[in-house]
Design brief:
By secondary structure, the chain is α/β, with parallel strands linked by helices. Helices cover 37% and strands 19% of the residues. It folds into two domains: 10-141 and 329-482, nicotinate phosphoribosyltransferase; 147-323, Aldolase class I (TIM Barrel), CATH 3.20.20.70. The protein has helices spanning 16-27, 56-65, 70-78, 84-91, 121-126, 128-151, 168-181, 189-195, 205-210, 214-224, 238-254, 271-284, 300-308, 320-323, 435-446, 468-482; strands spanning 34-40, 51-52, 98-101, 107-108, 115-120, 157-159, 185-186, 230-232, 263-266, 291-294, 315-318, 334-342, 345-348, 365-372, 378-385, 396-399, 407-410, 413-417, 420-424, 427-428, 464-466.
Amino acid sequence: MKKFDNERNLSMLMDFYELTMANGYFNDGLKDQVVCFDMFYRKNPDGAGFSIAAGLDQIIQYINELSFTENNIEYLRSKGIFSEDFLDYLLNFEFTGDIYAVPEGTPVFPGEPLLTVRAKALEAQILETMILVTLNHQCLIATKANRICTSAKGRPVMEFGARRCQGYDGAIYGARAAYIGGVAGTATTLADEKFGVPAVGTMAHSWVQLYGDEYTAFKKYAECYPDNCLLLIDTYNILNSGLPNAMKVAKDVLEPLGQRLKGVRIDSGDMAYLTKKCRKILDENGFEDCKITVSNSLDEYLIRDLLNQGAAIDSFGVGERLVTAKSEPVFGGVYKLVAVQSEDEYLPRIKISENPEKVTNPGFKKIYRLFDKTSKKAIVDVITLVDEIIDDSKPYIIFDPVHTWKKKTLTNFTAVELQKPIFKDGEQVYTSPSLNEIRKYSSIQLSTLWSEVKRFSNPHQYYVDLSPKLWNMKHDLIEKYSMK
């Protein structure tokens, strides 16, 4: 895989408050204070039962390349609020901390730390924006893509949305995340060159319009691409013009060359009606192997309805509603301080809010996923403190963190830690899988979820519990600060 030309230095991609706080830490003698931050999110988009982790590889690249140039320092100096000692520190900056993260492609749930930073306060603080912008975007698109691919019931889905993305990064990294989520390919050529997401595409309406008449346009395209000819048939009239001309070109041009018409694409109209009519006509004329692709503002619900109506569709091209996650375009991940190291212990920190869902889980933590040994299905995720071990050779009691009287004793299960070490003492210790490996891993992991969790509407709420030790810590802190 070719390395993408990094013409931009993204080290300054941060909220300005990260720099003002970092300068304050430095001047107050706290630059070496070790802390822990968690990145987590509070609810699944679109009312889904889960989300999909994505974007870790870009965070790894960012941290490995993180450095401040003389021009960056001159800009900061011009603001007139940063100390010279702090600016000198930035000029020689190196990340020296630890990062733990859930691998890309893993199904994840609200409240779980997808990524944990254990580092000096100054280092951890200036990573905030890049971690959030990367994970929030790619987790969102991977999750949306999975919903759309699921609705297609095994039919290939192509991502077609670059032209309506919020900028070119949205198109490039959106295509990457969509591939993790299950799409078969993308129209974004750079995503293929950069990441190996298969680039697909044939023609637009302008090709047909340029030649003046539809038959000539189809003929020229077939002559240029005889071994992979898919024709867009809705420029003028699908049933009276587009489909008849496509079949005529197939007989006039392709068949003499020993080739077949690979497919037709419809980008407008009543797709349930039109695809059924086209399928009937194609079959009656000996084109049973010709595939029908549809596009035009599709999403998971429209795809589901089309298939429920018996639409004769072999594949889908999905644009802006996928790669912009139009129905709910914000993932909502946050980055919160959860612990401060004091010698050999971690002092927990908590954020308390009038909104219960905004009360954070304190402490330096990790996540276990417990799988039933018989069914191989995921039973529950348990967030524990970092020094806790779930011994799957012994019974383990889980309980609802809110309705604590709801308890269950688990036996015959396997406990797996979800987070993996990514950086240790500033050195990368994790090798990212290839994008195809991530995509395959995601499919395997999704198969461990019960179908009830994967329902589109009113999915079963997957259990994410706290260990007793963590639960007690959290409630002791709530009691402590609520009394002040």
